[in-house]
Amino acid sequence: MTTIETCGTCLFYESRGSGSPVVRHPIYLRFIIAFWAAPVMTAGHILFAAVTTAYIFVGINLEERDLVNLFGEEYRRHRERVGMLIPWRRSA
């Protein structure tokens, strides 16, 4: 069973069963990994990675605030079960 609800630019997706999400923000996680996974880190690249990582965290907080306002208790429960960027499982 899959629930997908959309409103403008936001998308809340929760899959039940074997296709459960591992993290709430997989695209942001991939960006952070890509920014920090350089074989050579110059001072400019470190500055870029740090600033964009901070920017992503600010964006995540704003997005999650909007999702809680939109979906209420359903999204709060989803937040309790699924890690934001670090994949871990919590009991349902």
Could you explain how this protein is built, in words?
Helix 1 runs antiparallel to helix 2 (43-71). Helices cover 53% and strands 13% of the residues. By secondary structure, it is α+β, with helices and mostly antiparallel strands. Strands 1-2 form a two-stranded antiparallel sheet. The longest helix has 29 residues, at 43-71. The model is unreliable at 4-11 (pLDDT under 50).
Number of helices: 3
Rounded Rg: 15 Å
Q: What is the spatial order of strands in the main beta sheet?
A: 1-2
Helix content: 40-55%
- In one word, what is the shape? elongated
Low-confidence blocks of residues: 4-11
Q: State which percent range the strand residues make up.
A: 5-15%
Question: Main β-sheet: number of strands, strand sense, barrel status?
Answer: 2 strands, antiparallel
Alpha-carbon distance between the two ends: 16 Å
How many runs of DSSP E, i.e. beta strands? 2
**How would you classify the helix and strand content by structural class?**
alpha+beta
Mean of pLDDT: 81
User: How are helices and strands ordered from N to C?
Assistant: EEHHH
Care to give the gist of this entry?
The protein has 92 residues and is α+β, with helices and mostly antiparallel strands. Helix content is 53%, strand content 13%.
Write the layout of secondary structure elements.
Elements (H helix, E strand, L loop, with lengths): L1 E6 L2 E6 L10 H11 L6 H29 L1 H9 L11
Antiparallel strand pairs: 1-2
Helix pairs in contact: 1-2
What attributes does this structure have?
two-stranded antiparallel ribbon, elongated, alpha+beta, 3 helices, 92 residues, single chain
